Every structure is written in structure tokens, then in C-alpha cells.
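quick q for whoever's on today - can somebody do inverse folding on this one?? i tried earlier but teh output was garbage lol. C-alpha cells:
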């Protein structure tokens, strides 16, 4: 009899371990998650999406995920107001009272804008490689490098070319819990060149030169990415790896970018968010 019970317990445990990850609701946050793209961002062109495979992974683990579409290249205020409208639409559709915002690159300042003007609608903000303290690359293009200099010309050419290519393929540190009741987090990479098979890595390796050896992901400096609780600022990822691009061609010797988003969703879940 005891052997029979032990046998069935063993079978049951094996069955439970074989259940899909969504069965445990690992990423099932209380409030919906909204992903927000950065500068020159896009939604979908064929199978390619900005947050490549990330929404699907989060949903497979129990999360309710929406992907916002705001102006690809405009001010934080304009993008922020567009996002605020989208947030209200998501709340109306889901019946939720708040959302968890995750923004990559310029999506970081964009989600911060919404949290600042409508904190009652935001449970948490997660900035992924957001230029929260400014960006050396932007400074360079705005005149830090001497006008007409070779370095400024090279950087401008690379960045403009990078932006064009994205278009072609797609058509502040502080406390975790701020005084406005919103929880803030951030993370970023610090390895501009990660995979020789990624056609965009060479461009990021060149733009990284603006940082004169300081840690950066090819576009944003690690220190500048800090906001609230810093999860990590030195992942072996570049600015595109952080959203699992290009098409999943990322650093084979670093954690899967999707797992970082999944872990953040679990962190929010455990906080009741």
C-alpha cells in the first residue's frame, strides 16, 4: 500500500513539474503591463516586433500585456500624452485601476511622464536603458563635439544610418517607492557589441565610442539609465539586445532578455502590483 501511494505521489510530482510555466502564473501581475517603445520605435512589420517575443513570453507566464504605439520621434511630452490616452483605454477595457509601465530607451522618460502627471493610474514604472540622466550621444549630436569635426560627422552619420535602418526594417536614481506612490525600477546593458551575426551590432560599437570607455550599451550610458531601484546596469547586452533584437540574435553568453522581463513581472506580482 505504501509503495502504491509513493508511486502515485511521484507521478503527481512529475506531472506538476511538466506543467507549462503559465500554470503557476509566474508573471501574473495584479495590474496590466504596458510595454512602451523608444525612439524610432515600431509595432509590427510581418513577424518582427519591437519587443521581439517578449509580450508572448509574458502572456505565456500569466501576464496581461499590452504594447503601446506612440510617436516614433517626438518630444517626451507629446509621446507621454499619447501614452496617457492609451493607458486610459487599457484601463477602460480591462476594468483595472492601474497599470505597470515598462519603457525601453525613450520609452523610459515617456512612462515617467505618465507617472508624474497621472500617478493614480500607475502602479509601477520600469525603465529599460532609459536616458534618465541625459545621454552623451545626444549631447554630441547637439553640439558637444566641435561643428565640422570628423568625430561629430562620424557619429552623426552612424546614428542617422542606424535610425534609417530601424525605419526600413520596421516601415534619475531615487527610492523604489516615490512620494507619488509609484514604484520605480531600472535596468540596462553595458556591452555594445555582443554577437557577430547581428547586422546592427557594428553601428552600436561605433556609437559607443562617444562614451570614452564609460559603461554603456551603445546608445545610453549605464549611469544615465539609473532610476529608482537599479536591478542591474551591466547586463552583457547592447541597446537592441535589451528588447531581444535583432530578431532574437543576442549575446549567447548572457541571460535571455525575455527572462529579465519575466523576472520583473514576477517581482511586481510578489509586491501585489
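ok took a stab at it. sequence:
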Amino acid at each position: 500500500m505504501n509503495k502504491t501511494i509513493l508511486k502515485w505521489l511521484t507521478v503527481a510530482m512529475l506531472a506538476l513539474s511538466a506543467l507549462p510555466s503559465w500554470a503557476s502564473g509566474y508573471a501574473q501581475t495584479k495590474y496590466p503591463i504596458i510595454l512602451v517603445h523608444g525612439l524610432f520605435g515600431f509595432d509590427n512589420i510581418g513577424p518582427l516586433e519591437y519587443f521581439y517575443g517578449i509580450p508572448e513570453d509574458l502572456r505565456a507566464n500569466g501576464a496581461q500585456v499590452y504594447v503601446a504605439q506612440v510617436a516614433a520621434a517626438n518630444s517626451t511630452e507629446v509621446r507621454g500624452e499619447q501614452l496617457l490616452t492609451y493607458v486610459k483605454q487599457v484601463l477602460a477595457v480591462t476594468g483595472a485601476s492601474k497599470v505597470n509601465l515598462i519603457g525601453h530607451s525613450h520609452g523610459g522618460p515617456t512612462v515617467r511622464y505618465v507617472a508624474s502627471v497621472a500617478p493614480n493610474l500607475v502602479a509601477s514604472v520600469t525603465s529599460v536603458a532609459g536616458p534618465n540622466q541625459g545621454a552623451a550621444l545626444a549631447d554630441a549630436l547637439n553640439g558637444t563635439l566641435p561643428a565640422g569635426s570628423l568625430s561629430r560627422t562620424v557619429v552623426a552619420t552612424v546614428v542617422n544610418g542606424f535610425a534609417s535602418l530601424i525605419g526600413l526594417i520596421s516601415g534619475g536614481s531615487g527610492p523604489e517607492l516615490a512620494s507619488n506612490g509609484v514604484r520605480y525600477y531600472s535596468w540596462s546593458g553595458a556591452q555594445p557589441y555582443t554577437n557577430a551575426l547581428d547586422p546592427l551590432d557594428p553601428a552600436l560599437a561605433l556609437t559607443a565610442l562617444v562614451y570614452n570607455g564609460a559603461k554603456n550599451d551603445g546608445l545610453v550610458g549605464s549611469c544615465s539609465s539609473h532610476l529608482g531601484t537599479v536591478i542591474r546596469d551591466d547586463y552583457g547586452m547592447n541597446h537592441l539586445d535589451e528588447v531581444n533584437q535583432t530578431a532574437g540574435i543576442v549575446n549567447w553568453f548572457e541571460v535571455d532578455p525575455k527572462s529579465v522581463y519575466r523576472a520583473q513581472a514576477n517581482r511586481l506580482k510578489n509586491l501585489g502590483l
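fwiw The beta strands are 33-36, 44-45, 48-49, 65-67, 99-104, 122-128, 183-189, 229-235. also The longest strand covers residues 122-128. so keep that in mind when u check it
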